[in-house]
Amino acid sequence: MTRALSTARRVGAQIFHDPRSLALVLVLPSLLLWLFKYVFDASPEIFQRVGPQMLGLFPFIIMFLLTSVTMVRERTSGTLERLLTTRLRRGEFIAGYALAFGTAGLVQAAVTSAVGIWLLNLDVDAPWILGIFAVANALLGTSLGLLASAFARTEFQAVQFMPLVVIPQLLLCGLLTPRGTMATVLTRISDVLPLSYSADSFTRLTQSSRWNGDFAVDLTVVLGFALASVALAALTLRRRTA
């Protein structure tokens, strides 16, 4: 655990001392949410209906990109190979990265939630539930980014995983149309995609302000996918790009 925490501190220092990474983590999601609000300035009911989903989706997408690209850069630069010649194990390395990027995702989700609720007047009866799922989405994006990086040889290939991992989930999670109205085969596929469960919870927030069993199930599924992705990332981690 000590070595994992040391890795997390090193990666965290890189993130929070790099102005571009800091802006990507803390500023960009809020700007995108602000842009989304004023795109529908003439129809504020659309922002109130879809805004909660956007608040969760932006951290998910950005943390996926940041994590996957950073991990591939660590491998192609030789940093990973040098670290694994020490006593640091693969699981400890992945755990350290998960802690660092998970913390960044938590801060990102907190900032974006605060901006959406208090500055953009997103009307949510239970903002604390909204915040929980925004953080869960950021952690999910981080864990899937760690897993995707194991299969990418270059940073460009890491970005190319976005159409494979992220976009299908965006299309099938119920954001564009209710999942129950899609073709049966698409509904079955969406049932095994983690983002569908967080999208269901964001939609449910517009109808209920109390924590219930449905929220608990959705959160368990999202966090379960995140933990499984981190475990698979540790198992598939390669020392360097061939």
From TrEMBL:
The keyword Transmembrane helix applies. Keywords: Antibiotic resistance, Cell membrane, Membrane, Transmembrane, Transmembrane helix, Transport. One of its GO terms (molecular function) is ABC-type transporter activity. It holds the Pfam family ABC2_membrane. GO terms for cellular component: ATP-binding cassette (ABC) transporter complex. Residues 16-240 form the ABC transmembrane type-2 domain. It is a multi-pass membrane protein. It comes from the Bacteria. GO terms for biological process: response to antibiotic. The chain crosses the membrane at residues 21-40, 52-72, 93-120, 126-151, 158-177, 215-237. It is found in: Cell membrane. Belongs to the ABC-2 integral membrane protein family. This is Transport permease protein.
